[in-house]
Structure formats: structure tokens, C-alpha cells
What we know:
Elements: H1 4-8, H2 20-42, H3 48-75, H4 93-99, H5 105-129, H6 133-171
Amino acid sequence: MVPPELEEGLPLEKIRDFPLEELLGMAIKAEIGARKFYESLAERIDIRELREKIEWLAGEEKKHEELLRRIYSSMFPGKEIVFPKEHIGPELQPVARKLHGVEDIIDLIRWAMKAEEIAAKFYAELEKMVDTEEKKRLMRYLSDMEWGHYYNLKAEYELLLDWAMYSQMMNVGP
């Protein structure tokens, strides 16, 4: 049995123990996880346009990873990225577990929105906890990126709801 603190992540208060170098490593690791999350989600979607949107989000996560790697290398030239051994990041495992077995596309998008909300709130909480303006700006930026993804997904979700309602109305006969 996996201890709950490893399965679900450690308390956010622990973040104060980490230097900016490791916070950036944590953010990079989270972006890699988000990209993989979207890639696996896209594999389950049959609607081409929606699959392309999810693949686009996976690509956006890849761009964010690359941006964070550039920020890291400019702040810590010549240093290897430090990934914290402990897990304290936007934890998508609870969301991924719920996705297992979900077949309804609307539910899949709803859970993807939840994943982005978790990440955005995580970074917003980190902004309150870190001690320098530099760290606060970085956390605010990361939170804003995740909220952007959330609202992209929300637009798709609302379109799907409208389409589902329209589709049902078209099937209602005299």
C-alpha cells in the first residue's frame, strides 16, 4: 500500500522548505505530467475537432515546459534541473483515477477542467506562501496559464452541452 502522502502529495506548507530552483523543477515536472495527461485523454476521444483541441492543450503544456526550462537555465546557468524527490505539485492522480472507465466525452472534459483548476489553485496557493517577489510572479504566471487552459476547456464543454441538447431535440419526434 502506498502511503497517502506519496499518493496524494504532501501538504502545501512544505513548499516553504524549497528554494526557487526546486520550485521551478516542480513546475517543469507538473507540465510534463499535464502533457502526458492530455495525450492519454486525446487517445480516448473520437470527435476529431475535440481530439485536436486536447492535442493542442498537450502541445501548450509542452511549450510551457520548454519556457520553464529556459527560465530555469537563465536563472541557474549550467545547472541540471533539480526535481524534488518528494511530491508536492499539482496532483492529478485523483483526477486520473476518476477518468479510468469514464466513457462520456462531456465527463472527460469536465474532469480535464478539474485537473486545470487543481493546478491553477495550487500555483495561486504557492504565490501566497513564497517569500520573494520573483517567486510570487512566477507562481502567478503559472496559475494564470492553468486558468487559461481551464477556460479553453470550459468553452469546449459548453459547446458539447449545447450540441448534446441540440442532438436530443433533433431526436424528439412527433
